[in-house]
Design goal:
By secondary structure, the chain is mainly β. It is built from no helices and 8 strands. The strands form 2 sheets. Strands 2, 3, 4, 6, 7 and 8 form a 6-stranded antiparallel β-sheet that branches.
Length: 100
Amino acid sequence: QTIELTWTKSELMNDGSTIETIEKFNLYHSLNNVLQPAIEINGNDTAQIISNAGIGNHTFQISTVEAGQEGELSDPISVHVLPVVKYKPIKMILSIELIE
């Protein structure tokens, strides 16, 4: 399963000052309440793809890093990934009877 996350870059710091350059984003991800390694994302990007997402509840939060200082975490967003069910084809039995 694949999860695509997108976000909008903020132009202002919490104190109202302008953000000059976003060095990077830190994406925090937990799967079934187990924290996964943080993902560092280029400061110019506004999307991230999570490939091979495991089955269960995924929660994400993101922060910006400017001048070596990490900002506050975003509000969490969650998605529940269900297993993919693959059905086997049904075997059809066909009989033909010739009637004269």
